[in-house]
Design goal:
By secondary structure, the chain is an alpha+beta fold. It has 2 domains: about 110 residues, 3-Layer(aba) Sandwich (Aminopeptidase), CATH 3.40.630.30; about 140 residues, 3-Layer(aba) Sandwich (Aminopeptidase). It is built from 10 helices and 14 strands. The radius of gyration is 20 Å and the shape is globular.
């Protein structure tokens, strides 16, 4: 089903039984390294996959330049040299892979734009302290103006979530992650994604969708969308807090993914006072 390297196979949903449990066993908590994430962004990043040995696979892709990722461990040196020769850059290098790669003579640097932001779940619920007072004020404004009902994002509410997503799309100048978000809603049962949907006066206004990471200790938010209306000011802060409050206690942290170098997004993520980052690195020959 998955070709032997250097033969590449497409990322199809039929590969989930092979890859999902392997991704679940990864301790690092890198947001890209779930089957759902690889599958949903397969077209955006032109992903392909090859088998290196019985338990290891390489995922290759292309953004501006070709790259490869090794979520399940490093292969032998000759295979690594061949990968670097064919794809130039290794992305999503985990901290545990940095020293071995450096020892073999590869050049490893931080990939700050792709650091995942980590927050203590209880911090997002309580929003304690002066620095988070503005978040509370926005939530209070939203609550004063609206009665909002939160529901689990079940298949019955897919059409309502699609309405939110379409509204979000039409308010933007670029499509963003629209296609991946749309397919995530269409396949959320199959991909075992879960989340919440929020209604004001029976109108769907926001939803979030994600899954667990880091051996079940972290929940990653892959998608968070809301209708773009000024009257719903504070809705993002509201759903952020409410969803964090209903997550099971086993999730110590929430991963809200990377800022991709967008300064506005970086400021917004930093304003919630992350407790740390899931650091990622890039390696070249």
């Amino acid at each position: 089903m998955i070709g032997q390297y250097p033969s590449l196979s497409e990322i199809s949903v039929e590969l989930r039984p092979i890859l999902h449990e392997r991704f679940k066993a990864l301790p690092d908590g890198i947001s890209e390294f779930t089957f759902a994430s690889i599958y949903l962004f397969r077209d955006a990043h032109k992903y392909g996959i090859s088998k290196l040995n019985q338990d290891s696979f390489v995922i290759v892709g292309r953004d501006a330049d070709p790259f490869f990722m090794l979520p399940f461990g490093l292969p032998e040196r000759t295979v690594l040299d061949d990968l670097f020769g064919s794809y130039n850059t290794m992305k999503c290098v985990a901290e545990s892979q940095c020293e071995p790669l450096s020892d073999m003579g590869y050049h490893v640097v931080e990939d700050r734009d792709n650091f995942d932001y980590l927050y203590l779940r209880q911090d997002l619920v309580q929003l304690a302290g002066r620095k988070l007072h503005k978040k509370k004020n926005l939530i209070n404004l939203f609550v004063r103006n609206h009665t909002c009902v939160a529901k689990p994002l079940l298949e019955d509410y897919t059409d309502d979530a699609m309405r939110i997503l379409e509204n979000w799309k039409h308010q933007r100048d670029d499509p963003g992650d629209y296609l991946a978000a749309k397919e995530a809603l269409e396949r959320m049962e199959q991909l075992q994604l879960c989340g919440g949907i929020f209604y004001v006066e029976n109108e769907p206004v926001a939803y979030c969708l994600g899954e667990e990471l880091a051996l079940g200790k972290t929940f990653v938010i892959h998608f968070e969308k809301a209708v773009a209306k000024e009257e719903y000011k504070g809705v993002y802060q509201f759903i952020n807090q409410v969803f964090a409050s209903v997550l099971p206690d086993k999730y110590e942290t929430i991963n809200r993914e990377q800022d991709l170098g967008d300064l506005g997004l970086r400021q917004a993520k930093a304003s919630y006072k992350p407790v740390g980052f899931v650091k990622k690195y890039k390696a070249t020959k």
